[in-house]
Amino acid sequence: MKRSDDKKKMPAPVRYLRSLFFDPGQQLIRPAGLSIRCNGEIEVENCKGITHYSEEKIEIDMGGLRVQIKGDALTLRHLTKGAMGVCGRPISLEFIYGE
What we know:
Elements: H1 3-9, H2 12-19, E1 33-36, E2 42-45, E3 49-53, E4 57-61, E5 65-80, E6 83-97
Antiparallel strand pairs: 1-2, 2-6, 3-4, 4-5, 5-6
């Protein structure tokens, strides 16, 4: 099946959410990164997407690995093309390689 056929079958909201994340080719130029602040804010740059979202866990696809943030009252503070801000009360941060 051609890629253009997939786009036609994908609902508009899903296409929009996918468009917020960068082109994988840009990963070679700008690697993914995390910034953690002591007030419970986490900034994520150049990510590929969100694979799980709830108030207790957010899992982010960073390209070569996934980052899992666990905590209480986790929310997306902002979401732009390839970047997001998470706030709340993070308890743990886990890096998941090669799955």
